[in-house]
Write a structure and sequence with these properties.
By secondary structure, this protein is an alpha+beta fold. It has helices at about 5-10, 50-60, 70-75, 85-100, 105; strands at about 15-20, 25-30, 30-40, 45, 65, 75-80.
């Protein structure tokens, strides 16, 4: 999965924007982060519910897994970009976007 493809997928959502977040890139809607991109490690992070995190992790927990520590317990989930398919990443980004976006925006993707 190329970095450019990740950007295209994340920015395809209405009102999504790309902004810096410490040493990473973040994707936000209405100032709320729904994903980050670690270009150096070729890894994305998405916010998921505990149930969605479990479902995606059951696909292959070497590709999609909770962020270690407290953030992971709250749904922060890493995705290894060298190993994930575009369809799965797209689904994870959509769920993450819908989790943090205002209801009127999220409804367009549900």
């Amino acid at each position: 999965m190329s970095i450019d493809t990740v950007r295209q997928l994340a920015l395809a959502f209405e009102e999504a924007e790309e902004l810096p977040h410490f040493e990473k890139t973040s994707f936000r809607v209405k100032k709320k982060i729904f994903a980050t991109l670690d270009i150096e490690r070729k890894r994305a992070m998405v916010k998921l519910s505990e149930i969605d995190q479990s479902v995606f992790g059951s696909f292959d927990n070497s590709i999609i897994y909770p962020v270690p520590g407290k953030w992971g317990l709250q749904g922060a989930t890493y995705i290894e970009l060298d190993k994930v398919s575009e369809d799965i990443l797209s689904d994870a980004l959509k769920i993450s976007y819908c989790l943090v976006a205002p209801k009127k925006l999220a409804e367009k993707y549900l």
